[in-house]
Amino acid sequence: MKCELCPRKCGVDRATATGFCGMGEQIAAAKAMLHRWEEPCISGTRGSGAVFFSGCVLKCAFCQNYEISAERKHREISEERLAEIFIELQGKGAHNINLVNPTHFVPKIINAVEMARKNGLTLPIVYNSGGYERVETLRMLDGIVDIYLPDVKYYSDELAVRLSKAPGYFDTAINAVAEMVKQTGKPQFGGDGILLRGTVVRHLVLPGGYKDSIEVVKQFGERFGGEILFSLMSQYTPFGLVKSDSSLAKYNRRITTFEYRKVLDAVIDAGLEGYMQEKSSAKEEYTPIFDFEGLVEN
Fold first, then answer.
1. DSSP 8-class letter at 250
2. Does the reported pTM lie above 0.85?
3. Hey, is 148 helix, strand or coil?
4. How far apart are CA 27 and CA 53, in angstroms?
5. What angle do CA 57, 135, 236 make, to 5 degrees?
6. Which of 81, 91, 99 is nearest to 296 (CA)?
7. Angle between helices 79-91 and 106-118 (to 10 degrees)
8. Rounded percentage of the chain residues whose pLDDT exceeds 70
9. How does strand 125-129 pair with strand 147-150?
10. I need a surface site. Which of 22, 60, 132, 163 has the fewest CB within 10 A?
11. pLDDT for residue 281 is more than 60
């Protein structure tokens, strides 16, 4: 079958070759863990049950997970094993099941979620992605996903192409978020403050990119307002190509307080509610060690 799950629509038969994402047909992952560094409404006090999938539909030059997205470090697992992992994470006390970078495995993930639910999975499902999504693929997830957690990285197409090789990124992402909001409705919380349903849009401020960030904020404030939560992130840390490619040297630094403050002011002006990171969040220790934890059967 020709793969058209993501906006690349590369058309590769992933049963016999790898797609643009770098992955074949089999589910590939690098870690399953209780993740405590998501937004407070996702991680809570016990952690989010995160499964980190390998490969990626984006080519971000600054990716903090470059080991698994670009270098494709992974271990293959079956749908049945993935369903077991979901149940195991629930048994460890996870507040939810957090599918990190899942786009290119959507059909198999759907099967695994349905298996796990038949075997006692009751947790909300979080779809945690880079925002570069086909609406047609998202519609497959209606009734499967409870919480969408997309990045929206750029307004400028020039930036999107230069840093992620993703033409048409903003229009693609904002239309994807519209479908996400349509499915989930306004954010709904449990009594413990944990998000049960809704869409949380993340935006990472980039070095020298605060004007682009302000435009992202304005667009989302005007279109979605109180229908989403907005998470403004300051954690940019140089990883991947920006550390070695001289043409990207301007991105080989952390953001300044001025840059972050300008975007934060725009979020306030737009009336968007949600979360902000302290500048001290830009630390490499927040990136997991991809050692295949949680993937092997106990």
1. G
2. yes
3. strand
4. 8
5. 45
6. 81
7. 50
8. 97
9. parallel
10. 22
11. no
